[in-house]
Automatic annotation (TrEMBL):
InterPro entries: Centrin_CML-like (IPR050145), EF-hand-dom_pair (IPR011992), EF_Hand_1_Ca_BS (IPR018247), EF_hand_dom (IPR002048)
Organism of this sequence: Euplotes harpa
Stored Gene3D superfamilies: EF-hand
Signal sequence coordinates: none
Keywords of this entry: Calcium, Repeat
EF-hand domain mapped to chain residues: 68-103, 140-175
Name assigned to this protein: EF-hand domain-containing protein
Organism lineage string: Eukaryota, Sar, Alveolata, Ciliophora, Intramacronucleata
SUPFAM superfamilies assigned to the protein according to its UniProt record, in alphabetical order: EF-hand
GO MF annotation, one: calcium ion binding
Amino acid sequence: MVAFDAGRRFSALEALKSEWFEIVRSNSSVSEEVVLNEDVMNALENFSTDSIFEKAILSKLGKLVDPNELQEIKDTFNKIDSDHNGFIAFRELKKAFKSTKSKYEDNDIIDIIKEVDSTGNLIIDLNDFIAATLDRTKYCSSEYAEKLFNYIDLNGDGKIDENDIQREFTSFSRDQIKEIMRIHSCHKQGYMTINIFKKIIQNH
């Protein structure tokens, strides 16, 4: 392409097909390979919850995460989400774990996805990923539990009721919401207090 004689120069299409560009593309794909650091790998592997509601609550903590920390988590998520459809599927997580030289079997990867996924669709969305990989010591503290409670308690009456849950957690059915309130409501009065909410989050 740099020849002085225009007749001897490669066209743009010929240049893109040249051996040199193939080498560049090959090297670029290597540099884009996902490499999970040990902290992220351990966080995903060790993430666990006692109920679907606890998992759903943790998935909302992303709204409170420090912007710089949140961007780092998003960047890692986007690297794993190789087809950029907004979800991490089995093959993508398997590839990411493979890059760590870890000896995870397919069933191990599936178990991790089941535990992290808050929707039951066997995929991990960004909120799920944030919940599993954020700094649990910091964001499950009383301070952040109270902030999240106030975020969900839209009318500020100091209670989270069925309407609050239905509005904020749209994937839950009415029956699931009733069961959540049966388990977690204050003295079976149909609402949660801040103290109950803190216990759910700080269960970790």
